[in-house]
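Whether sequence alone determines local backbone shape is best considered at the level of individual chains. In the encoding step, the backbone of a single protein was reduced to a row of integers, each denoting a local shape. For completeness, the protein is quoted in full, as a sequence line and a line of structure tokens.
***
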Amino acid sequence: MTMLGHEAAWLEWRKAMAGPRMHHAWLLAGKKGLGKSAFALAAARELVAEAGVVQPTGAHPDVFVLSHLPKDDREEKKREAGQEYELARNIKVGQIRDMQRRLATRPTLGARRVIIIDPADDLETSASNALLKSLEEPPAGTHFLLIAHRPARLLPTIRSRCRVLRFAPLPNEAIDRLLVEQCPDTDPATREAAVIAAAGSPGAAMEFVSHDLGPLDALMRRITADGDPQFTLRGKLAEAIGARPDRARIAAALDLARASIARMSQDASRAQLPSIVEAHAELVKLAGQAPTYNFDPGLLVMQIGGLLASAGAASHPADA
């Protein structure tokens, strides 16, 4: 992911590194697709590096990343074979326990090591409680970088022990320049739609283009604008997503649907907001389940379309 827009974050990080005492836990907070993971990896390598010590160009022995593992042994075998595999829904307590056992040893190349948890808002409850113990009594030289797309999902006790580093959405002009540079063959109409749908997230904009979401975006706009009483637009939406969409395309479609409803909320009246908020909440729930649940793609697309239609219907009350 590009490091575009991270100037303020780097300034704050390096100012802290130059200070007398580096805080042991940081919360990298901001919407998905802003490049927080790339920042965390680069910042971690900068923190553990020491003058006169040769640093590896590949994986660093003093930088550990905890993220979603394969769902089960069967999916692990798929990963080992280089095949597409399903991820576990949460980061498990066993992963935290394994990390804590490592913390009983000294760093390999220097005096510091960094634990990156990505995303920390997907820690299961027992994993969060286990992590809290390490945050309360961190071993000497150990630092934590917690990446969170939705910081409110973290335990308040975890948030209170972290210094927050916020990543703000980028202006549309910056995302447009990124697309011109990275995707020069994208037609202007698709690029404009990608910028709007991304809502400040360069990752979302790149995903929009790579998954060719222009036709989906147009259909979703029609559904949220007019509803879909005859189910016609939902059928077209299913055709546009495809009969056998992969998980990445479904995830992109769900993100796009959430962005479509979020746009509606900006101009909605107070009476319209409850239905719009409810539809958005259901899409958030689906987005969380999609990576690990075995949804029938066709039924899932119809469910997405139904939620969009319900939000669209909210803008056209029967007594209007």
User: Anything to note?
Assistant: The mean pLDDT is 88. Strands lie at 25-29, 63-66, 113-117, 142-148, 163-166. The first strand starts at residue 25 and ends at 29.
